[in-house]
Design goal:
Number of domains: 1
CATH architecture: Sandwich
Order of helices and strands: EEEEHEEEEEEEEEH
Number of strands: 13
Number of helices: 2
Largest sheet: 6 strands, antiparallel
Distance between the termini: 41 Å
Helix content: under 10%
Strand order of the largest sheet: 1-2-10-7-12-5
Shape: globular
CATH topology: Jelly Rolls
Length: 185
């Protein structure tokens, strides 16, 4: 795995890890995760280990989240499609408490990206096209420890969110958005 860049978002605890894909006339090959490379280049990840891997497929214009298991960190990757990833800081001691950030992920043959959300963040995804997402978790799923924060709740502070993503998200026809009723309450 060749990690080429690590970006911090407006909340610097959310990291975007970009890695190379090797291209030739057949397409591409990429090593999507290598624990040794993460240990060397992503020191913020060293205190964590992967305990569960998940994959989801969503039809275009679907929103999933904002879900949180307070002790679970997530490493999220778009396999194909188009996705806006949302991270809401719910760590009460954080200066970014209740502030949401968003980042767009798109399919590319040249590179792919992981987004790291440490424990204490609610996570959501707006899948703009038919999309497949893979995410690694630092804890196993526990239905008794999962909570939801509705994306359109007044609890969410959009102050540091990327303005173009915010404008795009709030300009869409919400009547066409595929979202579970329980994620709206």
């Amino acid at each position: 795995m060749i990690i080429t860049e690590i970006k911090k978002l407006a909340n610097p605890d959310i990291k975007v890890i970009r890695f190379e894909r090797n291209n030739d006339f057949r397409g591409y090959f990429s090593e999507t995760f290598n624990a040794n490379d993460f240990k060397q280049k992503c020191s913020f990840f060293n205190d964590f280990s992967i305990k569960q891997a998940n994959e989801s497929f969503s039809f275009a214009n679907t929103f999933r989240g904002l879900h949180i298991q307070p002790n679970m960190g997530k490493l999220v990757r778009l396999v194909y499609g188009s996705m806006i990833d949302f991270a809401l800081d719910l760590r009460k001691e954080s200066k970014f408490y209740r502030k949401i950030v968003a980042y767009g992920l798109y399919t590319s043959c040249d590179y792919a990206e992981w987004i790291w959300l440490p424990p204490g963040f609610a996570h959501g995804m707006w899948l703009k096209q038919n999309s497949m997402v893979e995410y690694f978790c630092t804890e196993t799923y526990d239905a008794n420890e999962q909570y939801c924060v509705p994306i359109f709740s007044e609890v969410v502070d959009w102050e540091i969110c990327d303005k173009s993503i915010y404008d795009d998200f709030f300009a869409m026809d919400k009547g066409t958005l595929k979202i579970k009723e329980s994620d709206l309450i």
